[in-house]
Design brief:
With 418 residues, this protein is of the alpha+beta class. The protein contains 20 helices and six strands. It has a four-stranded mixed beta sheet. A two-stranded antiparallel sheet has the order 1-2. It is globular and about 70 Å long.
Length: 418
């Protein structure tokens, strides 16, 4: 009986993986383009420039995409797969690993499925509360899957590469909101580790394909459930459940912000209180009542993001918030936002990340429940939305338009990268 990693490897190298439906091909193209745009946007930020100065384009590209906090996200795994998978595929494309656009896209799909499934198998939304970053834990295996498919390794080599990549997984990184955090650079380094694992397998150096079984599913203190890792493999593509963000925001806060906009519009005068009810673990991520001191703190704080959405909604699209935008009115409104655990919403989490918002004025009270905010796979962004996110960077816009075409990827798209 094949091991869990051998089964995953067989899926990664399955020729049938190249047979995309038209809708999945279009979705892949959209996610590739969105990630490419975020890579370019991130490279404009101080943290992105620092990441690109390290000398590794792969690590830099991953960091730039992720630090925007506007990259794609899969909810039930709590992973942001595009920030690892797409830069890895572009890195390999720049070295001539793909002959056709179809080969490129298939490797991207293999990476998405692997990374998401690892996050799903470790119960990503729950483990995040234990300070284990699901995307970082899954990143080496996701990048390894891209490289193994690109280099057309056999199943044994691929399983060995996945095992080597898994052995490097910890999921431990500094908090994103910490000043001068290296969190996103850690993600880029993890992607490099995955490519290195595939390169080692290509040269005949293999990891233990029975690794999960020998360690009873535990790696670096993290429990991996093989049944979840392989659940509905080849019949249910978790990539199809991956959403996009409409602007930089912690995804856990998006439903609350959209509910505030729905309830209030521009009628902010006289608001006395805003209560945000969310599942407990969701609230732990977004409840930051103090005034943000840096860009990432402003993006993670539902208090700040809700006030910004109501008073200066055009600034939601600002990626560089250094320092965060501040006015007396914004500070006052943010101070009126309170986060509460709502037990009624627990059953929805993590399939959806909902929010029940109550807004009180001096003379009235309104409430709204939002479970499917804009950008969710059931309320998807379209090409115009992806283009809007990148309009401030001409190279990103040009690259996205080229990626949307059916043409093979290499030089014209890669030439637009920093």
């Amino acid at each position: 009986m094949p091991s869990a990693l051998e089964s995953l490897a067989a899926f990664t190298q399955d020729p049938a993986l190249a047979s995309h439906s038209a809708s999945r091909m279009e979705a892949l193209r959209l996610h590739i383009a969105d990630t490419l745009g975020m890579m370019l946007q991130g490279a404009l930020l101080a943290e992105g420039r620092a990441a690109m100065a390290l000398g590794s384009r792969l690590a830099g590209w991953c960091a730039c995409a992720r630090l925007t906090e506007a990259d794609d996200i899969h909810l039930t795994s709590c992973t942001t797969p595009g920030s690892v998978v797409v830069p890895t595929a572009l890195h390999l494309a720049s070295a001539g690993a793909f002959k056709t656009w179809g080969d490129f896209v298939t490797a991207v799909l293999a990476g998405y499925e692997t990374l998401i499934r690892v996050g799903y198998a470790i119960n990503g939304p729950r483990i995040l509360a234990s300070k284990v970053w699901p995307t970082l834990f899954a990143a080496p295996m996701g990048a390894a899957a891209v490289a193994c498919r690109a280099w057309k390794l056999n199943t044994s080599q691929t399983a060995g590469a996945l095992a080597t990549a898994l052995a490097a997984s910890t999921g431990i990184a500094p908090p994103a909101t910490m000043p001068n955090s290296s969190r996103c650079i850690s993600l880029g380094a993890a992607a490099e580790q995955g490519v290195l694992a595939a390169r080692a397998a290509r040269q005949g150096a293999l990891g233990d394909a029975q690794l999960l079984e020998r360690r009873a599913g535990r790696m670096a203190g993290v429990r991996i459930y093989p049944g979840l890792l392989l659940q509905h493999l080849s019949t249910r593509f978790l990539f199809d459940e991956t959403g996009l963000k409409p602007y930089p925001i912690a995804r856990q806060a998006l439903a609350a912000v959209e509910a505030c906009r729905e309830l209030v519009g521009r009628n902010t005068k006289g608001i006395s209180a805003i209560t945000v009810g969310v599942p407990y673990e969701q609230g732990r991520v977004i409840d930051h009542p103090g005034w943000p001191s840096n860009r990432m703190q402003s993006i993670a704080s539902v208090q700040y993001q809700a006030a910004l959405a109501l008073l200066s909604p055009e600034r939601l699209m600002e990626f560089d918030r250094t320092p965060p935008f501040a006015t007396t009115a914004l500070r006052a409104l943010a101070a009126k936002v309170r986060v509460r655990a709502d037990a009624r919403l627990e059953a929805q989490y993590p399939e959806t990340w909902p929010a029940r918002v109550v807004v009180k004025w001096s003379d009235k009270r309104k409430s709204a429940l939002v479970s499917i905010p804009r950008g969710d796979i059931q309320n998807p962004l379209r090409w115009k939305d992806v283009l809007l996110k990148a309009t401030r960077h001409r190279r990103a816009l040009a690259a996205i338009r080229k990626t949307k075409s059916q043409e093979p990827i290499p030089r014209r798209v890669l030439g637009a990268l920093p």
